[in-house]
Design a protein that fits this description.
This protein has 243 residues and is α+β, with helices and mostly antiparallel strands. The chain contains eleven helices and four strands.
Length: 243
């Protein structure tokens, strides 16, 4: 039952993402059919610099719906069930998660919070409990199998598994949903684990489509002030001026 760390991999994204976003934006303001300019976009007839400048100019105006045509798919592993419970609250997305009902967790990996890892007494107690959980799971699974539950034993034994249990999940979001996700989960007020995963995802998005994600991140980074209010601000950015 080893401790694991989060791993974030970009599996796929919409092909030619900048060209597609540019075409979608242009269609909103273009009298003709952007399908006619698509071959020119793919062949380099319209430079990337021109596409980028147009996209960034329109996005700065607040018009963002055309970026929904581009999506990114990530594989997250070594993350806790506590993280995935937060992740799936972002509803404009598609998820495929490792099932505790079908996957045998007899040798469950787990995620240890840094605050616990840094305190010897807390770490020892945490690790001991993980071992206790593993033993209870294996015992229950064996008892249920002997009682005739067969392949269904895992779905009942899983009820003893903690939020620290490691999981793997595939997530797909479009660019607009990702911007919203980053605004909330890159904030210093976000829980440490999902904040780290969000920042890794953002770095990968910036490599592929910097024109959309260059200024993505916590809301304060875009606004230049903290929108969380005096009670919740971390102090990184000033609060908005009072009238």
């Amino acid at each position: 039952m080893p401790e694991v760390k989060a791993r974030v991999e970009l599996l796929a994204h919409t092909p030619d993402p900048l060209a597609l976003v540019y075409a979608a934006f242009r269609q909103c303001y273009h009298a003709g059919d952007v399908a006619d300019m698509w071959p020119q976009l793919l062949s380099g007839g319209i430079s990337r610099e021109k596409q980028a400048a147009f996209v960034e100019k329109i996005m700065a105006s607040g018009h963002a719906s055309p970026i929904e045509h581009v999506s990114f798919t990530f594989a997250l592993s070594g993350v806790s069930r506590a993280l995935t419970h937060q992740l799936v609250r972002h509803r404009i997305a598609s998820y495929s998660q490792q099932s505790q009902r079908y996957v045998d967790a007899s040798n469950m990996d787990y995620v240890m919070p840094p605050a616990i890892a840094a305190d010897e007494r807390a770490r020892v107690r945490f690790q001991a409990f993980m071992e206790e959980v593993g033993a209870a799971y294996r015992d229950l699974k064996e008892i249920l199998e002997e009682a005739g539950r067969g392949s269904h034993a895992c779905e009942d034994a899983r009820f003893v598994l903690p939020q620290a249990a490691s999981s793997s999940i595939v997530v797909t979001m479009n660019c607009r949903a990702l911007l919203n996700f980053f605004e909330h989960r890159c904030c210093t007020r976000a829980q440490w684990e999902i904040r780290g995963v969000a920042r890794s995802m953002l770095a990968l998005c910036r490599e592929v489509l910097p024109e959309v994600f260059r200024h993505a991140g916590a809301r304060c980074e875009r606004l230049g002030y903290c929108p969380e209010g005096e009670k919740f601000t971390c102090g990184r950015y000033p609060l908005p001026a009072k009238n």
